[in-house]
Write a structure and sequence with these properties.
By secondary structure, the protein is an all-alpha fold. It is built from one helix and no strands.
Length: 97
Amino acid sequence: RIDEEIVEIGKGVDELGELARAANDEVRSQNKMLDSLGTKIDNVHDSVSNINETLKTTIEKARQSDKICVDIFCVILLVGMIIVLVKLNDQNKQKGN
């Protein structure tokens, strides 16, 4: 009887060993995938950083050269909005009378 129990325990240990080896193989496989993913993420991060720097430089150059045009457009737009508001105010006063 003790021999049978020892044999059963041995079978259980063998099964646990197989499960442990399978888990180890899976962990190694996932580690490889994670390493690959980490490398890809680093590459994308570097690429995005370069794009951001290029975009920043481009915007700074565009802002310097077009600053006056944008400022003039904003002033004209503001004056136009003031004129519209004054006319609307005059119309409301006329309706009130």
